[in-house]
Amino acid sequence: MAARPKKRGAESGDEEVERRLEELLFGGEEELLKRLQPEQEGDLGRTLLDDDSSDSEVENEAKSSLPPPKKAVWVDEEDEIEEPVDMTHRFRKNLLKSSTEKTLSVVKLQQRLKEQFQSAMGGMPSWAENKAKKRKKNKKDLDDESDDDEDLLRKTGNFVSCSDALPKGLLQIKNCTNANKSRPSDAKLTTTQFHPGAQVILTAGIDQSISIFQVDGKTNPKIQSIHLERFPVYKARFSADGEQVIATSIHNKMFYVYDMMAGKVIPVYNVRGLAERKVRKFEVSPDGLFLLLLGSSGYLHLLSMKTKEFVGSMKINGQAVAATFSPDGSTVYTNSDEGEVYIWDVKSRRCLSRFIDEGCLRGTCIAVSRNGQYVACGSSSGIVNVYSRDTCQHQTNPKPVKAIRNLVTTATSLAFNPTTEILAIASNATDDAVKMIHIPSFTAFSNFPVFGQKIIRLAQEMDFSPRSGFFSIATNRGRALLYRVKHYADF
Questions:
Q1: Measured between alpha carbons, how far is 447 from 459 in angstroms, rounded to an integer?
Q2: With CB atoms counted within 10 Å of each terminal CB, which end of the chain scores lower, N or C?
Q3: Is the Cβ–Cβ distance between 190 and 474 less than 8 Å?
Q4: At CA 45, angle to CA 42 and CA 47, rounded to 5?
């Protein structure tokens, strides 16, 4: 019974301590209530108005302290008059839309130049332009914006993304209008390549011409076409920055460089130090520094991409049948007609390693994935061996990750898509000999090509657009077939 009063005493002591702390922090209960409760109605409103008025007074005082804007001492009325630009000059003739135009205002000339630039670089596709206009007009929240996206995708059906990872089995792909429909070729196409930065595709072939088209999947209008006299094009490629096109021929030692920015076609004759009777196969380094030419007797020659001057050579045993750069441009992979693959360091031109392509009697083509993980080697038997890069760099007899046996004739063309989820393999020995291989399962998509249609006539070359949205095949019939890979949302 005596313990209870002590407990109450302890509790009263704790309450006293709490009360003192409250007074120190808040100034006591009465004072706290007085601070929280306004004395009269409308005090809070007046306080806010007073704060605003004080802010406005500060702003007005700051504005008044600024110096007044200076006026021009002299105004020449002739400065405000725009002088017309003479359009008969030879550098401006290509901007005229009719023969009656002799002069243009500065504003109209700027508009013409803008239109010409957008045309040359592919411009903005109509679906993206409509989407941008809709965003600018409505200025809605993110939910409304996503609704607009769904409506746009439902109308066009072109840019639909299903999931992050590409599933195996069936590939969501559809036929589009041929990339070169606005300028079809009557001879074999040897080149189809997408521009690295613009929504543009390049085609070239035996008809001695190089053509550039805008890619929209519907009309694919022609941007420009260049005819090279007595120069059937064996291969053509964009430079790494997309400002030049390099083209070689079947029987010529010279090659052409088309400067897209300057509009000039520059022939490159007799490169000093390059002892070759003809130049056909070549590769452009991804870093834009070098041009690699495949010569005779196993030689590979490096040229400066900037000056087109000879830098140095490398040599393998046998004949160099194909070569490709690593994604960073630091190494070169070359396969020979003897079934060996050589790996070279570009800067030192030293052989880092070489390995035997398993079961290969004669190498025919080679490709490296964009992420640098895989090296694919094609052979005359039609088998395509896919190796891990780390394995083939450190072993002389590496085992392939997968031996792809879907082709029954010589493998002549290989292409990885930019996300390293598809490997396209093809043979130019028979029609419809194209397969799309899913990675990493390394199984073929069963619905491409469609059985029995015979659309792909002797595939010569293949390429994926920069973000895998489109796929193109150059054929023996002069057509650049174009397909929309629906899994990928971008060009």
A1: 18
A2: N
A3: yes
A4: 110
Q: Taking a C-beta distance cutoff of 8 angstroms, is the pair 384, 377 a contact?
A: yes
Q: What is the C-alpha to C-alpha distance for residues 476 and 307, in angstroms, rounded to an integer?
A: 34
- At 130-160, the pLDDT tens digits run 545 555 555 444 455 445 444 434 433 444 4
Q: What is the H or E stretch that residue 146 is in?
A: helix 142-156
Q: Tell the burial category of 313 from Cβ atoms under 10 Å away from its Cβ (0-12, 13-18, 19+).
A: middle
Query: With bands split at pLDDT 50, 70 and 90, how would you rate the model's confidence at 7?
Result: very low
Which residues, including other chains, have CB under 8 Å from residue 221's CB and lie 6 or more apart?
182, 213, 214
Distance separating alpha carbons of residues 77 and 431, to the nearest angstrom = 72
pLDDT tens by residue, 89-135: 655 666 677 667 777 777 777 777 667 656 655 555 554 455 455 55
Task: Flag whether the pTM goes above 0.85.
Answer: no
**Alpha helices (runs of H) in 427-483, residue ranges in sequence order:** none
In DSSP notation, 382-437 reads S-EEEEEHHHHHH-SSPPPSEEE---SS---EEEE-TTSSEEEEE-TTSTT-EEEE
* Per-residue pLDDT band at 164 (split at 50, 70, 90): confident
Q: What is the DSSP letter of 79?
A: G
Separation of alpha carbons 53 and 58, rounded Å: 9
Give me 295's structure tokens.
């010569």
User: Dmax over Cα atoms in the chain, in whole Å?
Assistant: 121
